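Protocol step 4 of 6: structure prediction from sequence.
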Amino acid sequence: MSANSGAWELSGVLGRSGPAAPEDGRTPNPTNGFARHLAPYYPCSMRTISVKLPDALLRQLESEARRRRVTKSQLVRASLEQALAEGKEGARVSCYDLARDLPGKVKGLPKDLATNPAYLKGFGQ
């Protein structure tokens, strides 16, 4: 009985060309005892970037990642997606949305300037 009976040899590590067939007739495992993960880890292609953070922000990131039980990368991705989505909504803000708190703020003008038809005669002509 050989020293490797019942076990597969690691190709490259032991200097042999591939896994040896077990003596009990089983098919050799091509993963050499390691689980093969056929699907990609991420659902899409991921690129790596570096981000420089102040110590306080890094501590907050680590703490929040532990609290949510996610990785720091997952938390950063989710935060970026949320911030960028909010930016798109902000681009759709109308002039009215930006200035709706301004009517009646200018001193000396009537408070109903925009709604009273008497003030609108000849407007836009």
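Step 5 (inspection) to follow. The chain has a mean pLDDT of 74.
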